[in-house]
Specification:
- With 315 residues, this protein is an alpha+beta fold.
- It contains eleven helices and eight strands.
- Strands 1, 2, 3, 4, 5, 6, 7 and 8 form an eight-stranded mixed beta sheet that branches.
- The radius of gyration is 22 Å and the shape is globular.
- The N and C termini lie close together (9 Å).
Length: 315
């Protein structure tokens, strides 16, 4: 069940302004285009990584994880919430990092209050509390794409569906943890100081990706880092600061576009084009239709070769 939670994109601009709207200060997200420790280190300080991947719906659960080890006792010393509702995993993953970094980040009064309220809860009740938080749900949904074609009906995913899931990796109390609300406990990947996170997390991610077929490319990685404008100001790098400000402006524009439904606009544009083609005569309309069909078929074929996402769901 989605319980009123909509799907959001794995996008640096979406996640940056989502946490900003939750009251978090001086944090942004950067997309990782390669599994390169040096590139990740350049973004330091790095608080965690959000990993989006295709979820194996037909895979049976096991008593031990395929990598690392369950740390059932860790829930006493860190924030870990079970995922109890569909479509919330993106926000839950970033909160899994933020709520374990209260001493390093300014998470804001509302998230601090939520953490304190759920501090004594077991993971399943923490998940229920998160799912029922109007503040978190409303901020999450404000970044969902506006579309009249999204069905409100919810169904259980089958093996034929392409289902995607977000999880978090972050160093906590000297250990590297994988925080996945669909797992029974945090997964420990061994010792990891905060300053060693970039080196330690990359091999874990590589092993995770290697479990998929070689032609599977549907992954996305976002690093949670300090607002890069702070570093630019400290270094007095005005060019860098300008680029970061322009990036923020572009993110705000894209986020605003996500909130709008352009179906009516597109419909009117198509009507105008059709009228224009009909006035041209000499089969111009029919030729336009056939050309469009050809281009669509070519795009579908190209997307299929690249393993494009279709019938996507979040868990």
């Amino acid at each position: 069940m989605s319980g009123g939670w909509n799907t959001i994109e794995s996008d640096a601009g979406v996640f940056t302004y989502l946490v900003d709207n939750l009251g978090v200060k001086n944090v942004q997200f950067e997309e990782l285009i390669s599994l390169d420790p040096d590139f990740l280190r350049q973004q330091s300080p790095v608080y965690g990584v959000i990993f989006l991947f295709k979820y194996p719906t037909g895979e049976k659960s096991t008593d031990v994880p395929k990598d690392g080890a369950f740390d059932f006792a860790a829930a006493e010393n860190l924030f870990f919430a079970a995922q109890t509702i569909q479509n919330a995993c993106g926000t839950q993953a970033l909160l899994s990092v933020l709520l374990n970094k209260e001493g390093e980040l300014e998470i804001g009064p509302q998230l601090k209050e939520f953490k304190e309220f759920t501090g004594a809860f077991p993971s399943d009740l923490r998940g229920e509390a998160l799912s029922n938080s109007e503040l978190i749900r409303d901020v999450h949904n404000s970044f969902a794409r506006s579309s009249p074609f999204i069905s409100e009906d919810q169904r259980t995913a089958t093996e034929d569906d392409d289902v995607y899931h977000f999880i978090a990796y972050t160093p906590i109390n000297g250990l590297l943890y994988e925080l996945d609300g669909l797992q029974p406990a945090p997964i420990s990947h061994g010792a990891c100081a905060f300053e060693d996170f970039s080196e330690k997390v990359i091999p874990v991610l590589q092993r995770r990706i290697e479990r998929y077929p070689a032609n599977e490319i549907r992954f996305n990685l976002l690093a949670m880092v300090q607002d890069l404008r702070i570093r630019a100001k400290e270094l007095g790098d005005q060019d860098w600061l300008y680029r970061e400000e322009q990036k923020r402006n572009a993110w705000q524009w894209e986020n605003a576009l996500r909130r709008h439904n352009f179906v009516g606009f597109v419909s009117e544009v198509l009507k105008g084009v059709v009228r224009s083609k009909l006035r041209e005569g000499d089969g111009a309309y029919e030729k336009w239709i056939e050309d469009a069909k050809g281009k669509t078929e070519a795009r579908i074929e190209e997307r299929s070769k690249k393993g494009g996402m279709a019938d996507e769901m979040d868990v």
